[in-house]
Design brief:
heterodimer; A: 348 residues; alpha+beta; 11-stranded mixed sheet; 32% helix; 26% strand; B: 303 residues; mainly alpha; 3-stranded antiparallel sheet; two-stranded antiparallel sheet; IMP4/RPF1 (chain A); rRNA primary transcript binding (chain A); Brix (chain A); Brix domain-containing protein (chain A)
Chain lengths: 348, 303
């Protein structure tokens, strides 16, 4: 197809004067070069050839650019000038669709809202978290193994076997025994699959999809958690919904971490996936030489982590107001498939 | 004319579309079959006199077919509604199938028994909560897995956790104070005088710590701990604090906290460790742990 086009342009060119002809031909040839996308070529072999060539070209150009930029920076530093500021790369987080429910800091309405929600009593230290773990009705051995690890992570937690009780009955039972939250681990195909966190007495019910579970014994160089109360890190819960979920998660842990223990539990939200990690940390001071070559030794503080305990990711499927009630419950948020259509839209 | 035997021969030896052959035997899929097995005596097609029980919407009906109506397929099957009560239903069957071959009567009664049992069980099950299985299309599953992978890479977890911890370390003093003069604070950091501030505060609380913190100390018994107090005091005396305001606020705030002894204990350990190495007091700042959710600082500790 490309060859055909060139012939046409040549025919056109013969009508004009020589100089103009040359110019015209160059222009059209250039235009053609820009216009021929690999996807327009019907022949598969040829198409893939040209696509590969384009890719290599792009790579080379990119490398050249990077080299040039680095060289320029180096020169600028040597000369003592400020190097050009680096451009900010475009990431999905940068180009995230604007969400009007993103919480702004120090919002009065927000603090009032927080005071009035179901977890305020835990956050005000009026109640200490007490968690009840259980499994779904049909479960395999992986479920209880996972739960025993979770019991190590969350202090003041108890595991009861499921039996054939209805979930609503379990909720009542837990309320009577003064539990603050109920966590149900659901297994599918012999793997824990979903997590249901129910706040009590009338807290919301959050249904999460669980994936990428790695138990402690499968982690290399794992540490063993102690009985100290852990610290909590909640990252990137920005929207209102995220805030609510974050508070729900935060209500699982006690409000007075034991800093001696140096244990930290992290729930990190990235693009609506909540990553759970459990570490023991230690602060160390590291000596580094400054890059400017002024030979100044600076003691930099770093934190070193040792992973202990399980590792998994959660994704919110639905958040229901009130305790577990699928028939007559009021859902605050439900994941619908057409929420996935945009790659830049996140809800937490 | 009804030639049952002929029909049977034809069906069995050639082909019957209702027959289903499995490893355990031959079954009949005909809805009017009493036993469900493909037999000479249970085949509804090759028996001109036949009876069966069928269920419609939870109500049982006795169906009967006689040779007198064999030429009218439309009106072939006579239907009698059976009562709910099991015994009464049995009596009605007896009444209608009087003088019929024992085999058929017996088999219909058996079928009735089985069906009543099934009905009871289905009703019981409907009351219990059953889990409904929702399937996710494979495309979605794969898409989610892909996105999760990329999200995990984008969230450089270890680094972000470390950064968060370091930030808490630095901001440890900040705690409840929202409108903090940032510039001055940074200046302070740069000048490494925070350490002085630390030691300063620890001084007045030494006495308290000695007495109250005793229980804590027993957790990690180190002779060094006792020695350590003196070293800290020595260092503190040398340096001056430059930001009185911060210190005062800190002290007031700290005094109120019950955790202070715990924090101090930890600091002691860490500062001591450093001492052994470098004779340099590092910036071990108390943790106030405002629990940050996103960009919002919460006041979790309230004293």
């Amino acid at each position: 197809m490309g060859f055909k086009r060139k012939k046409d342009s040549q025919d056109l060119g013969s009508e004009f004067d020589d100089d103009e002809k040359v110019k015209r031909m160059k222009k059209t040839v250039e235009k053609e070069k820009k216009e021929i996308l690999p996807s327009m070529i019907k022949n598969k072999e040829k198409r893939s050839e040209i696509h590969a060539k384009l890719k290599i070209q792009k790579k080379l150009e990119k490398r050249k650019k990077i080299k040039a930029r680095d060289a320029a920076e180096k020169r600028a530093l040597e000369l003592g000038e400020e190097p050009l500021p680096r451009e900010i790369p475009r990431t999905i987080e940068n180009t995230r669709e604007q969400d009007e429910t993103v919480c702004k800091a120090f919002d009065e309405e927000l603090t009032a809202w927080n005071d009035a929600d179901e977890f305020s009593s835990i956050y005000k230290c009026e109640r200490t978290p007490k968690i009840l773990f259980t499994t779904s009705r049909f479960n395999s051995t992986r479920g209880p193994a996972f739960i025993s690890e979770l019991c190590d992570v969350f202090p003041n937690s108890h595991y009861y076997k499921r039996g054939t009780y209805d979930l609503k009955k379990i909720v009542e039972y837990a309320k009577n025994k003064d539990f603050t939250s109920l966590i149900v681990v659901h297994t599918n195909r012999r793997e824990p699959d979903a997590l249901l966190i129910i706040g009590l007495p009338d807290g919301p019910t959050a249904h999460f999809k669980l994936s990428k579970l790695v138990l402690r014994k499968d982690i290399k160089n794992h540490g063993n958690p102690t009985k100290h109360e852990p610290e909590l890190i909640l990252n990137n819960f920005t929207t209102r919904l995220g805030l609510r979920v974050g508070r729900l998660i935060g209500s699982l842990l006690p409000q007075n971490p034991d800093l001696l223990g140096r244990r930290v539990v992290t729930f990190h939200n990235q693009r609506d996936f909540i990553f759970f990690r459990h570490h023991r940390y230690i602060y160390e001071s590291k000596e580094t030489k400054e890059a400017t070559g002024s030979k100044k030794k600076e003691a930099k503080m770093i934190a070193r982590l040792q992973e202990c305990g399980p590792r998994f990711t959660l994704k919110l499927i639905s958040l229901q107001h009130g305790t577990f009630d699928t028939k007559s419950g009021e859902y605050e948020w439900v994941h619908k498939p057409d929420m996935d259509t945009s790659r830049r839209r996140f809800f937490l | 004319m009804q030639h049952d035997e002929v029909i049977w021969q034809v069906i069995r030896h050639n082909h019957c579309s209702y027959m289903a052959k499995i490893t355990t035997g031959k079954f009949c899929r005909n809805p009017y079959n009493v036993t469900g097995i493909c037999n000479r005596s249970s085949c509804p097609l090759s028996n001109s006199r036949y009876a069966t029980i069928r269920d419609e919407d939870g109500v049982f009906y006795l169906y009967m077919k006689t040779i007198e109506r064999a030429h009218m397929p439309n009106k072939l099957w006579e239907r009698v509604k059976l009562p709910r009560n099991y015994e009464k239903a049995l009596e009605i069957i007896d009444k209608h199938l009087m003088y019929w071959p024992k085999f058929l009567v017996h088999k219909t009664k058996q079928r009735l028994t089985k069906m009543t049992q099934m009905r009871i069980r289905m009703r019981k099950l409907a009351l219990k909560t059953r889990e409904k299985i929702m399937t996710i299309p494979r495309k979605e599953k794969k898409r989610e897995a892909r996105r999760e992978e990329k999200a995990e890479k984008a969230a450089v977890l270890e680094k972000s956790i470390e950064n968060e911890l370091l930030e808490r370390l630095k901001k440890g003093i900040q705690g409840d104070i929202y409108n903090y003069p940032v510039k001055e604070y940074n200046k302070v950091l740069d000048m490494d005088t925070l350490q002085a501030a630390d030691e300063e505060e620890e001084e007045p609380e030494h006495d308290i710590e000695y007495v109250e913190g005793y229980d804590e100390l027993e957790e990690e018994e180190d002779m060094e701990d006792f020695g350590g107090f003196d070293i800290d005091r020595f260092v503190a005396d040398e340096e001056n604090d430059e930001d009185d305001n911060e210190c005062k606020e800190l002290i007031d705030w700290k005094r109120g906290r019950k955790e202070s002894k715990v924090n101090l204990q930890e600091e002691k350990d860490e500062t001591l460790a450093k001492f052994k190495k470098k004779q340099k007091v590092t910036i071990e700042v108390k943790y106030s742990l405002p629990y940050q959710i996103g960009c919002i600082n919460f006041k979790i500790f309230k004293q």
